[in-house]
Design goal:
With 453 residues, this protein is of the alpha+beta class. It has helices at 15-34, 48-51, 56-61, 78-82, 86-93, 103-112, 157-172, 184-193, 200-207, 210-213, 215-224, 229-239, 245-255, 260-276, 342-352, 372-387, 401-410, 421-426, 447-450, and strands at residues 38-39, 45-47, 65-67, 94-98, 121-130, 142-151, 177-183, 284-287, 301-307, 314-321, 335-341, 365-367, 392-394, 415-418, 428-433, 438-443.
Length: 453
């Protein structure tokens, strides 16, 4: 018989792993709430009409499509099948797909619920997404995103808050990071000054690969997309301007002076950096003109976060999208958001061995089971501990005490409480500290107060 397995790019999570994942999720969730964001959820699958065309050609190729229910071949495009036109054929037998991210479903949600939403609407969402990508370290086909978005406001104070949220989350997770910022309007200006604004998307898609494939291959890709040598030589020094954030912006003003949209992006970045100077941000913040983020819907500020301690790529990213809801019929509603990559963050914390060892949510106490009468003696005190928010259990079966203690060891339970005939007669418990290897006798009625002493 073939052994059971799971699809490549997906994972099972053990209780110990879930404890660590919940630590990340809870940290992010608590910071979101601190800034007034409210939680929503959307379905795992959306219609392909909602998903297609929002992520660019490369993103569309990574969508998991779901076959129509019943006789899905009934409406199949046989001509597309004969011509080996896979995308067209797939669309004829699929009307739904698994969500690629949480931002596009959020835009759809806003449009559908516009009459029930008060703008600006601040929402957070922690749910899995799916991408038909090639699995590798830090890249999975099923993974969680933790999003926070503000929609219905043009204020750059929203960008500031998102930067503060990023700083707050990673400070609580004890990770050193670099928050990289850029502006899509500056990139548009670069395309404009070489006289090829229509190539903005191919240019940003190529630039976004700098960290992955290197400068030489990116320049070759720009050439393949239609840029000549003069264009490339114009772009190259702009992308690699060095200096302090303010100095880079000043240089850009000179280089991109003829582009109105670029100057608008520069002004926005100057205002954001001015706002940051008024608050306490611990993380490194840098203006990175090579930051492009290849998603089509970004229109203003773009944000990407990288660990300064582990080489794993982006662990958080986002930006402003001024016309995303317009695709669904709701015009002139600007939004800005960020997304934490929980799975990559997990890998970074694991690699750096920075998970906390004193997890208060883990099982703290186990009562042993010497028999039916002993178990009944323990139950009221077990209940008392739980009512005091102390995680506790009683071993369900009356088996050898050595096996019960072995269970406690394997599950990292720090305290084991024993109650045999002697303890029942004296109305006491024996508390065994599994970490220190010590034990003591305490009165049953004083168990709660003397447990950790």
């Amino acid at each position: 018989m073939q052994k059971p397995s799971i699809p490549k790019g997906t994972r099972d999570f053990s209780p110990a792993e879930m404890q660590k994942r919940d630590y990340i999720f809870n940290t992010i969730r608590n910071v979101f709430k601190l800034y007034g964001f409210q939680s929503i959820e959307t379905p795992a699958m959306e219609t392909l009409n909602t998903l297609l065309g929002k992520y660019g050609d490369e993103g569309d190729k990574l969508l998991f499509k779901i076959l129509n229910s019943g006789d899905f071949l009934k409406k199949a495009d046989n001509e597309a099948y004969s011509n080996i036109d896979s995308p067209k054929f797939a669309n004829s037998v699929s009307e739904k797909g698994l969500r690629y991210d949480l931002t596009v479903p959020f835009a759809r949600y806003v449009v559908q619920n516009r009459n029930n939403i008060t703008f600006p609407f601040k929402r957070y969402q922690i749910q899995p997404v799916w991408r038909a990508d090639r699995p590798q370290k830090g890249r999975f086909r099923e993974f969680y995103q933790c999003d926070a978005d503000v929609i219905g406001s043009n204020s750059l104070l929203n960008e500031l808050e998102l930067i503060q949220i990023i700083d707050g989350v990673f400070d609580k997770l004890n990770l050193n990071i670099d928050i990289k910022l850029n502006n899509r309007k500056i990139l548009s200006g670069i395309a404009e000054i070489i006289g090829k604004p229509e190539l903005l998307i191919p240019i940003t898609v190529a630039i976004d690969k700098l960290d992955k494939i290197g400068e030489e291959k990116v320049m070759q890709e720009l050439s393949d997309k239609g840029l000549n040598n003069k264009d490339i030589e114009t772009i190259r020094p702009v992308l690699f301007l060095k200096g302090k954030n303010e100095e880079i912006l000043k240089s850009l003003r000179d280089v991109l002076a003829k582009s109105e949209i670029a100057l608008s992006g520069i002004e926005e970045m100057e205002e954001i950096f001015a706002l940051i100077s008024n608050v306490s941000v611990k993380a490194k913040i840098s203006l990175d003109l090579t930051l492009a983020r290849g998603l089509n819907y970004y229109t203003g500020t773009i944000i990407e976060v990288q660990s300064l301690e582990a080489n794993i790529g982006s662990i958080c990213g986002g930006g402003r999208y001024d016309d995303l809801t317009g695709i669904f019929g709701l015009k002139d509603v600007s939004g800005v958001g960020i997304s934490f990559g929980a799975d990559r963050i997990y890998e970074v914390i694991k690699e750096l061995n920075k998970f906390p060892t004193d997890n208060t949510e883990s099982l703290a106490i186990m009562f042993t089971n010497f028999g039916k009468q002993e178990a009944k003696y323990c139950l009221p005190y077990l209940n008392q501990l739980r009512h005091s928010n102390i995680p506790a259990m009683i071993f369900p079966d009356s088996i050898k005490i050595s096996k019960q203690l072995d269970y406690a060891n394997k599950n990292n339970i720090p305290f084991v409480i024993l109650a045999g005939e002697s303890e029942m007669q004296n109305q006491t418990f024996t508390v065994k500290n599994m970490i220190e290897g010590t034990q003591k006798s305490v009165l049953a009625n004083d168990l709660l107060t003397n447990l950790y002493k």
